[in-house]
Specification:
By secondary structure, this protein is of the alpha+beta class. It has a single domain, classed as Lipoprotein localisation LolA/LolB/LppX (outer membrane lipoprotein receptor (LolB), chain A). It contains seven helices and 17 strands. It has a 17-stranded mixed β-sheet that branches. A hairpin with a 4-residue loop joins strand 12 and strand 13. It starts with a helix and ends in a 6-residue tail after the last strand.
């Protein structure tokens, strides 16, 4: 008992002695969080995208081509107007125009792929292929070193493929099975304060991060996707989806979602801006700013929506049989 009293007096003495040396320091503000959500609720939000059969909208499109830049710079195309159409399971179309002129048109049915580049004039080509795996291997070194000048001119645009856009809008559900494992963590990050009327200082933002892992035939567990939900915004929206290549942990796609709005008569919210960054995997970044009044889901689309022919007789490039 006596020793305990002595220890207590010692602690009080040290605290009293040190109080004169204590100073108040600035720390990053922790932003208030929204109501807690369970893992099942987060999974349900992802899987609700499976209810969408068709999607259509107009958008402002900005494409950044990392492959044709110089040093620490990249080529960024002027913003243009885009018309995007999706239909499950894998039909996709995106048509891009700039000040009334066609820039590019792209379609895919999940098996065949067509890309017409109309401008700039030196890049006018009609690319097509049936082997998407072949297209996936157009990496930076291959494009820079190829003897086929047509591929060099198009650069990362060749890797701007329909399924990347579709998977960013019509997010694939999280399967329920023995091979799939899902867990989540609450994560805090120090970021710039972007709130209106606030100085651009640093704050701590809080996220739910949902990890989706898959067990392969050998029993090895591999990371496939990560979903980020922002707990500092009302209703904890999905703000980021990351996908990983071949289960080896290498980041393939980093998609961010922002500026959420309500789609009339649908009961759904939708991100007004979607940015798809595939710099390391495919050499491009695609930014889409949707026009909310043009967004439609589950409306009927004519069969001609996903047809693209080389009506302007552009020079053709078969991506399945490229020049060595």
């Amino acid at each position: 008992m006596r020793s305990a009293r002595v220890l207590g007096l010692l602690i009080i003495g040290v605290a009293a002695f040190g109080s004169g040396c204590v100073r108040r320091v600035n720390v990053n503000e922790q932003l208030p969080v929204s109501e807690a959500l369970s893992t099942d609720q987060l999974i349900s939000r992802i899987n609700s995208y499976n209810e969408i059969r068709t999607f259509s909208a107009q958008a402002t499109v900005v494409v950044r081509n990392y492959f044709t830049g110089d040093g620490g710079k990249a080529d960024e195309f002027p913003s243009a107007t885009g018309l995007i159409r999706f239909q499950r399971p894998e039909n996709t179309r995106m048509k891009v125009t700039f000040t009334g002129f066609q820039v590019a048109d792209m379609v895919s049915d999940g098996h065949s792929y067509k890309l017409a580049i109309y401008r700039p004039s030196e890049s006018r080509r009609f690319f097509f292929g049936t082997n998407l795996k072949q297209i996936e291997h157009l990496d930076a070194a291959e494009i820079r070193e190829t003897k086929d000048k047509r591929l060099t001119e198009a650069g990362g645009l060749l890797n701007l493929r329909p399924q990347h856009i579709t998977d960013s809008f019509l997010i694939k559900p999280i399967a329920d099975g023995e091979r799939i494992n899902v867990f989540r963590e609450e994560l805090r990050q120090v970021e710039t304060d972007t709130r209106p009327n606030k100085k651009k200082g640093l704050v701590e933002r809080t996220y739910y991060v949902l990890y989706v892992l898959e067990r392969d035939d050998s029993g090895q567990v591999k990371l496939r996707r990560k979903f980020w939900f922002d707990r500092n915004q009302p209703d904890t929206p999905l703000v980021r989806q990351q996908t990983f290549e071949n289960g080896n942990g290498k980041l393939a796609s980093d998609v961010t979602f922002s500026s959420w709005f309500n789609i009339p008569n649908s009961g759904r919210k939708w991100p007004g801006q979607v940015t798809i960054d595939r710099r390391n995997a495919d050499g491009y970044r695609l930014e889409l700013k949707l026009e909310p009044d043009t967004v439609e889901i589950n409306s009927d689309l004519p069969d001609t929506t996903f047809k693209l022919e080389n009506t302007e007789r552009l020079p053709e490039v078969d991506l399945d049989h490229r020049t060595p």
